[in-house]
Amino acid sequence: MDHTVSKSPGLASSALGATANRAPASLAGCPVHDLKNRLRAVGLRPTRQRVALGWLLFARGDRHLTAETLFEEAQRARVPVSLATIYNTLNQFSHVGLLRQIAMDGTKSYFDTNVTDHHHFFIEGEEGLVDIPGHDLSVSNLPEPPEGMEIARVEVVVRLRKSGA
Asked: What is the pTM of this model?
């Protein structure tokens, strides 16, 4: 599956087809232009920092990373950004559906560029996440939610460790 910046998971087709978002022939397919349109389509202004961080996040396909990892990548790419801005941007991107946030042990959050329905293996000791396709796992017998509430999503994290450890 192609997961380039020009793909827009989670965006309504009407947002993608809007006349205002159509690129002139000379810009069609330009990853930076497509990223800017993707940000606009979800209501975010494409600031220099958001575009730079979006490029770092989405240009390499599906992956899981922490704010600290993105901060290190930004430093290597010479993107002038603070760790606070990284956290704010990751939270904004998660809020509008461009990323999925996965909280682990209440101390560390991972951000997933794959926003489709799926679950994760967590590799203990390596602190890594690996996708489990949504169709490979069935969750049943969920409890009834409290009055006035509905289940929005079920996320399963299967913890792994090396055999014999």
From this structure: 0.74
